[in-house]
Amino acid sequence: MLKRKKSLEWLKAIIIGLLVAFVLRTFLFSSYEVYGVSMLPTVEEGDRLVINKIGYYIWEPERFDLIVFHANEQEDFIKRVIGLPGETVEYKDDKLYINGESIEEKYLEEYKESLNIGKLTGDFQLRHVTGVTIVPEGHIFVLGDNRRFSKDSRHIGFVKLDDVVGEVNMRYWPLNQFKIMR
């Protein structure tokens, strides 16, 4: 009788553990593996990340957040938030301008120096027939850190906030590169 009771307790603990894991993975956090080179040097192909899926239900993405979003029905992309709703975005002489004001991208400085290839980001400005275009409400403008080899908002357009899966909170693999992201 005691053995049966102990087995029943173990079974309940396992079921509760599986339910908690399911809820956490489905609604709060998710694991994501990086494919491609568009976010070098920040994250590399094969890196494994923890995505906070609940945060953006509480607050809006901020500039320079690393996010995962549904690029299409088959693919999720990881990119960096650059332009927020209502802003203009421009690159000129490898510098970012938001609403005409120069914004530093400190996370790219070391990468630019190590490449020694000139400009990392080609000049561009959001344009529309009527003039300068702003990032529409309910959307963001995203770029990969490896600007020369990134399929991002310059190619796929603005990202709907509804398509954002979540914010990258941590790299847990490879272990020697474990990092809390911000």
Automatic annotation (TrEMBL):
<dbReference type="InterPro" id="IPR036286">
    <property type="entry name" value="LexA/Signal_pep-like_sf"/>
</dbReference>
<dbReference type="InterPro" id="IPR019533">
    <property type="entry name" value="Peptidase_S26"/>
</dbReference>
<protein>
    <recommendedName>
        <fullName>Signal peptidase I</fullName>
        <ecNumber>3.4.21.89</ecNumber>
    </recommendedName>
</protein>
<dbReference type="GO" id="GO:0005886">
    <property type="term" value="C:plasma membrane"/>
</dbReference>
<dbReference type="GO" id="GO:0006465">
    <property type="term" value="P:signal peptide processing"/>
</dbReference>
<dbReference type="InterPro" id="IPR019758">
    <property type="entry name" value="Pept_S26A_signal_pept_1_CS"/>
</dbReference>
<keyword id="KW-1003">Cell membrane</keyword>
<dbReference type="Pfam" id="PF10502">
    <property type="entry name" value="Peptidase_S26"/>
</dbReference>
<feature type="active site">
    <location>
        <position position="38"/>
    </location>
</feature>
<dbReference type="InterPro" id="IPR019757">
    <property type="entry name" value="Pept_S26A_signal_pept_1_Lys-AS"/>
</dbReference>
<dbReference type="GO" id="GO:0009003">
    <property type="term" value="F:signal peptidase activity"/>
</dbReference>
<keyword id="KW-0378">Hydrolase</keyword>
<keyword id="KW-0645">Protease</keyword>
<keyword id="KW-0472">Membrane</keyword>
<dbReference type="GO" id="GO:0004252">
    <property type="term" value="F:serine-type endopeptidase activity"/>
</dbReference>
<dbReference type="InterPro" id="IPR000223">
    <property type="entry name" value="Pept_S26A_signal_pept_1"/>
</dbReference>
<keyword id="KW-1133">Transmembrane helix</keyword>
<comment type="similarity">
    <text>Belongs to the peptidase S26 family.</text>
</comment>
<feature type="active site">
    <location>
        <position position="79"/>
    </location>
</feature>
<keyword id="KW-0812">Transmembrane</keyword>
<feature type="domain" description="Peptidase S26">
    <location>
        <begin position="8"/>
        <end position="173"/>
    </location>
</feature>
